[in-house]
Amino acid sequence: MRFPKYGNYSLDVSGNVLEVFATGAWNLKTTEFFIEEMHELIVRFDNKPWAALMDGRRWVLSTPDCQTRLAEAIKVNISRGLTRSAYVLETGMVRRAQLERTHPSKQRDFESSNYEREYFQKYFQALNWLHKEGFSPIVQP
Q: 108 versus 116: which is more confidently predicted?
């Protein structure tokens, strides 16, 4: 399997969920583009509670400076209504360890009592958890 040189991503807003599909090895430039596009999209949530569903099964890894920027971006997202994040990853602890470094609870200068993050190996497990938490990519009439 071949990955793009600097990683790639796609973003979509469905219902009250931001869906993220990440692939390849991310560098700071990819991360910056991702954050800019993500912050433009989440305006649609109008500071109401929303969730993120991140499929990282084809994501390789990222550099430490990317992790720092992502941690900052997640704090901004929480201040704009992010309350749940579901991460779908293959088995193995390296990716999860990298993502844990972006968790706001690891930042001494940040507290949020309403933000929760969970990890899953299957996409539908993540969707089910988000649904139980009140978030769904299916728009209710």
A: 116
